[in-house]
Amino acid sequence: MKKYDYLVVGAGLAGCTIANLLKKNNKRVLIIEKEDHIGGMCYSEKRENIEVHIFGPHIFHTDSKEVFDFVQQFSPFNNFVNQPKAYKNGKLYSLPYNMNTFYEVFNTIKPCDAKKVIDEEIKKENIKNPANFEEKCLSLVGRTIYEIFIKDYTAKQWKTDPKNLPASLASRLPLRFYYDNNYFNHRYQGIPEIGYTKMLQNMIDGIKIEFNTDFNKDIKKYIDMAEHVIYTGSIDELLDFKYGILNYRTLRFEHKVLDVDNYQGTAVINNNEKDVPYTRSIEHKFFNYSQTEKTVVSYEYPEEYKLGCVKYYPSLQQKDNELYMKYLDEIKTTFPNLHVLGRIAQYKYLDMDKVIIEAFELFKQLTKNF
Ligand SMILES: Cc1cc2nc3c(=O)[nH]c(=O)nc-3n(C[C@H](O)[C@H](O)[C@H](O)COP(=O)(O)OP(=O)(O)OC[C@H]3O[C@@H](n4cnc5c(N)ncnc54)[C@H](O)[C@@H]3O)c2cc1C
Fold it and tell me: Does ligand 1 lie within 6 Å of residue 195's CB atom?
C-alpha cells in the first residue's frame, strides 16, 4: 500500500477544495505546493492592515447555494457588491453597460431612448458578417460604446489592435436596459472577511502540506507516493514541453501604499485611456471596508507571456486549445492515476465558484467506489 491515498499538487483553490473533501472522507492526503504559500491566484496578504489581493481583485460570486454554503464554513463573507467604474477622457462611467452608463454617455433617461440611440448606431455600421473582434463589437453595441469602453482597453489587454482579434472573443456583450451597476448577476456575492488565504488555510486544516516542492522536478517519486494524484498545474510541464509550451496571458501588478485614507473612492476602476499602460487600478480597502489611515492601490499591467511568468489566464486561441488536448490525451495514458483539476490544469477560464464545482464533480467520480 502506498503512503497516501491522494497527492494533491498545488494549494490554490482547486487543490484546497479537493483536499478538504477527501480528508473529510478519511482519505490520507498530502498537498505539495511549489511556492512558499498557499492560495495560488487567490492569495491575499495584509499590508497596512488591509487585505491585499496580490494577484488581482477577487470577488466571490455564484448562483450555487451548495458552493456558497461550502465556502462559508471557512470564513464569514461580507456583502461587497462589485460596481466597477471606467475612466476615459477625464470622465468616469458606470459599468457594466446599463441605464446609468447610457445616461452618462448619451444623456438618455428612458430605456426606449437609450435603445433607440444604440440601435441606430448599430444600423449605421451595417455589419452583417463580422470578420473580427472590432466588427463584432460594433455590430453589438455601436460605435460610441465601443470607442469609449472597448477599443483602447482591449488593445492594451491583448497588446494588439482589436481588428486582429477573433470575432468570437466578443460573443457576449450584455447591455442592461435598467439601472443596475452590480457587475455580477449572481445571487450570492461577497469577500471572505478573514481574507482568502486564511479561508483556504481553514479549508486544509489538519492536512499535511509541503511547500517549495515542485511535482515536476521528480514526477516518478511523487507518483509512487500515492494511489492517485490530483494535479492543478500546467500539463505541458508533465511531458517536459515535448509539443511546445502552452500559451497563457500574463499580468504584472504594482502595489503601492499611499499616505491617504481614500484614493479613488471605490475598489476597481478600469482605465480605458490608450496612453496609460495599466488597465485597472484596485484600491483594496474597499473590499473589506477597512478603516485605515493609509491605503493600498494596485495597478494592473498586461504583459507578454514567456515561460516562467505567472499563468494568469489560459489562452483563448484555438491552436492553443488543440495543443492542450494533444497533451491531455497523452497524459491520460502516461499517467492513468493522475486527474487534472482547476483553471490551469483544465486550461479553462474558471471563476472561483466554477473551480469548486469542478472539484465537487471530481470528488464524486473518485468516490464512486469508496
Ligand atoms: C487577475 C484575476 C482575477 C480574478 N478574479 C476573479 C474574481 O473576481 N472572481 C472569481 O470567481 N474568480 C476570479 N479569478 C479566477 C480565480 O483566480 C481562479 O478561479 C482560482 O484561483 C483558480 O484556482 P486553481 O487552484 O485552479 O489555480 P491556481 O490559483 O493557479 O493554483 C494552482 C496552484 O498550484 C501550484 N502549482 C502549479 N504547478 C505546480 C507544481 N508542478 N508543483 C507544485 N505546485 C504547483 C501553484 O503554485 C498554485 O498555488 C481571477 C483570476 C485572475 C487571474
Answer: no
Class of the CATH-defined domain 4-76+187-246+314-369:
alpha beta
Active site members:
172, 176, 249, 280, 300, 349, 351
CA of 41 from ligand 1 middle (Å) equals 4
**In sequence order, which residues have a C-beta less than 8 Å from that of residue 129 and are 6 or more positions away?**
none
Stated as kind and residue range, the H or E segment containing 1 is: none
CA 75 to CA 185: how far, in whole Å? 23
Ligand 1 atom 3: the closest Cα is on which residue? 56
pLDDT (tens digit, 9 = 90+) per residue, 314-349?
A: 987 889 999 999 999 999 999 999 999 999 999 999
Positions of CATH 3.40.50.720 in the chain: 4-76+187-246+314-369
Length of the chain: 370
Confidence (pTM): 0.96
Distance 326 CA to ligand 1 centre (A): 23
